[in-house]
Design a protein that fits this description.
It contains three helices and six strands; from the N terminus they run H-E-E-E-E-H-E-E-H. The protein has 149 residues and is an alpha+beta fold.
Length: 149
């Protein structure tokens, strides 16, 4: 159910997407940069929306990013920024929001819940993404330079 509803949502928005197994992938263009994102349907009535920073964080900047992402996560009230620390995607930074889609709700309500979760994610990535890209390519290793306390 959730998968078909999310596909309908993306089609209503006229957003192009690629479908692979339980993932719907799309590219997003923000105010200052572009990024990949994907919807993952975990259960029949639940989904996660991920926005992925377009570059990997190198080993020498992992501590800086851990601090920055913690500070950002303390500022947002929904979702969270994550950094992958093991495996093939080490250094990948992504923002995750999720939503439960109650089976008894009307389709209109379900589409509104999906819209809220996805738009909050995109707005946060649009806001914090440029800061993270500056930290990725900047010369300072001091988190205060990018996000004061």
């Amino acid at each position: 159910m959730a998968r078909e509803l999310l596909k309908k949502y993306l089609e209503q928005k006229q957003w192009s997407y690629l479908e692979k197994e339980d993932i719907l992938k799309l590219d997003v263009t923000g105010n200052e940069f572009s990024w990949s994102s994907f919807l993952k349907v975990d259960e029949e009535y639940q989904f996660c929306y991920f926005s992925v920073l377009p570059a990997m964080v190198p080993q020498e900047r992992l501590e800086l990013f851990s601090t920055l992402l913690h500070r950002i996560n303390c500022q947002i009230w929904f979702g969270d920024f994550e950094i992958i620390l093991t495996g093939e995607n080490v250094g990948q930074v992504r923002l995750r929001t999720s939503s439960f889609l109650p089976p008894a709700a009307s389709e209109e309500t379900l589409l509104q819940l999906a819209d809220l979760s996805i738009n909050m994610n995109m707005a946060a990535m649009n806001f914090y993404g440029p800061l993270l890209m500056k930290a990725l390519y900047g010369t300072s290793m001091n988190p205060e330079e990018y996000l004061p306390n």
